[in-house]
Amino acid sequence: MAENRTTTASCHTERTVGDATVVELRGEIDILTALPLSVRIDALTAGACPDLVLDLRPVTFIDCSGLRLLCQAHNRVRGRQGRLRLVADRDRLMRVLRPARLAGVFEIHPDLPADLFGARRQDAVGVAAG
Fold first, then answer.
1. How many distinct structural domains can be found in the chain?
2. What pLDDT was estimated at residue 11?
3. 7: part of which helix (H) or strand (E)?
């Protein structure tokens, strides 16, 4: 079930859905925004087995600092036996990942993964049927 805790910053919004943290990144992920985002993502993935979903659909630009942020998040989550999923237009993101030789590194989804909302959908069906 989703918590009603939402945090908004200049370039991201985050919320908790079940055990996953969904972070929607917006605008440009570049040298100016990557460091504060990296600090926040490090905090979100500090525990054991973090489940992090980065929604990149609203991102308009990503440079090498943004790619570094994604790689650091991937390595940190993997090192803690967690899971990192990216939500993005696959073709658009692959145009950035391929030249950096990162094409096969990330789990990419075109929309928020359905399993995030499975419990809430089941609850809603139970309420409607009951």
1. 1
2. 80
3. strand 2-8
Written in H, E and C, the secondary structure of 79-106 is HCCCEEEEECCHHHHHHHHCCCCCCCCC
Q: What's CA 75's distance to the chain center, in Å?
A: 14
What radius of gyration do the chain's Cα atoms show? Answer: 15
Sheet strands side by side (includes 107-109): 2-8, 12-17, 20-25, 51-55, 83-87, 107-109
**Residue owning tokens 């500090």:** 46
pLDDT along the chain (130 residues), means of 10: 46 90 95 94 95 96 96 97 95 94 94 73 29
CATH number assigned to the domain comprising residue 125:
3.30.750.24
In whole angstroms, give the CA distance from residue 86 to residue 122: 24
Q: How far apart are CA 57 and CA 108, in angstroms?
A: 11
Long-range contacts for 70-75 (Cβ within 8 Å, ≥24 apart)?
Answer: 70/102, 70/106, 71/102, 71/105, 72/38, 72/41, 72/42, 73/38, 73/41, 73/45, 74/105, 74/106
For residue 120, the enclosing domain spans 2-129
